[in-house]
Amino acid sequence: MTAVAEPGRRTVRVGRVSWVVHRRELVVVGALVAVVVGVGAFALTQGEYRIPLDKLLAAFTGTGSESVLRIVLEWRLPRVVIAVVGGIALGLSGAIFQSITRNPLGSPDIIGFNSGAFTGALIVTLVVGGNYAATVSGALIGGLATALVVYLLAWSRGVQGFRLIVIGIAISAVLNAFNDYLQLRADLNAAIAAASWGMGSLADLGWQDVVPVTIAVAVLVPLLALLSRRLRMLEFGDDIASALGIPVERTRLLLLVIGVALTATVTAVAGPIIFVALAAPQLARRLTKSAGITLVPSAAMGAALLLVSDVVAQRIIAPAALPVGAVTVTLGGIYLIALLITQAGKH
């Protein structure tokens, strides 16, 4: 293993494999990891039964009381873990779509893939009827079907990013109307549960909910890593990427499937959570001062945003709690207005 230092970055080589490590990115990712650890520890101590730090540490060493072990390890820790892993998935999904479209509005929230995943889950739960695995599968199928429709409608001698976004917004509007129709036609109790879930919530989630999201991230992240170089090339435009030997449309389709799978898995477990995929890549880009979208900082930013939003949702009107989606949609609205003002100022 050798390392070649350059101003502001370090090229690391292991045999024939090499990658560039930017020092500023390392600092930003390290700071975001510290935020996640700190906020996560705070979340584990808060609630109706507050747990001092020494008892929290005792719970992780297995020396705490049975009640503390149950509260920390069985009730609160799964929520923290799913916020972190789900935030990573959403951050990476946003990074994929913003790189593909070369547009800061290119996010599964805006393009409608979240809505499609929610539609698939609603059809399974309210119409067909099915267990947890069927709901997850329905969300994945719904998200992929929506992506396929948007992709085909956006096709015109290739797929242009702006066209993909505009068509995605239109499809999202149609799906949101259909989702409302499904809930209005459903049994009252089921409709109330679906509406609550549709706001995006991490409440009452356990280790059985952590597993599918963790598996999805564990499988999809290595695949994304293999395609990361192609993803960077796509940011330069289709012509340049094609000239560099990148199979543009095939690569775009593979990346689209990975991005949809990441966001659909989170949607199946927690409902549609907006803003995180939209903002994480752009905030990470501004902090790292990178020329393009970066995957690892986007993932770290996504984890920090979702975890912090969930803690705010739990504590802002304590002892009552809000769905995390209520917090992220508020932050997302503010962010989107600021983004549009900034873009208008540039033009």
Automatic annotation (TrEMBL):
<feature type="transmembrane region" description="Helical">
    <location>
        <begin position="210"/>
        <end position="227"/>
    </location>
</feature>
<dbReference type="InterPro" id="IPR000522">
    <property type="entry name" value="ABC_transptr_permease_BtuC"/>
</dbReference>
<dbReference type="GO" id="GO:0033214">
    <property type="term" value="P:siderophore-iron import into cell"/>
</dbReference>
<keyword id="KW-1133">Transmembrane helix</keyword>
<feature type="transmembrane region" description="Helical">
    <location>
        <begin position="161"/>
        <end position="178"/>
    </location>
</feature>
<dbReference type="InterPro" id="IPR037294">
    <property type="entry name" value="ABC_BtuC-like"/>
</dbReference>
<keyword id="KW-0812">Transmembrane</keyword>
<feature type="transmembrane region" description="Helical">
    <location>
        <begin position="253"/>
        <end position="278"/>
    </location>
</feature>
<dbReference type="Pfam" id="PF01032">
    <property type="entry name" value="FecCD"/>
</dbReference>
<feature type="transmembrane region" description="Helical">
    <location>
        <begin position="110"/>
        <end position="128"/>
    </location>
</feature>
<keyword id="KW-0472">Membrane</keyword>
<comment type="similarity">
    <text>Belongs to the binding-protein-dependent transport system permease family. FecCD subfamily.</text>
</comment>
<feature type="transmembrane region" description="Helical">
    <location>
        <begin position="26"/>
        <end position="44"/>
    </location>
</feature>
<feature type="transmembrane region" description="Helical">
    <location>
        <begin position="79"/>
        <end position="98"/>
    </location>
</feature>
<keyword id="KW-0813">Transport</keyword>
<dbReference type="GO" id="GO:0022857">
    <property type="term" value="F:transmembrane transporter activity"/>
</dbReference>
<feature type="transmembrane region" description="Helical">
    <location>
        <begin position="134"/>
        <end position="154"/>
    </location>
</feature>
<dbReference type="GO" id="GO:0005886">
    <property type="term" value="C:plasma membrane"/>
</dbReference>
<feature type="transmembrane region" description="Helical">
    <location>
        <begin position="290"/>
        <end position="308"/>
    </location>
</feature>
<keyword id="KW-1003">Cell membrane</keyword>
<feature type="transmembrane region" description="Helical">
    <location>
        <begin position="320"/>
        <end position="341"/>
    </location>
</feature>
<protein>
    <submittedName>
        <fullName>Iron complex transport system permease protein</fullName>
    </submittedName>
</protein>
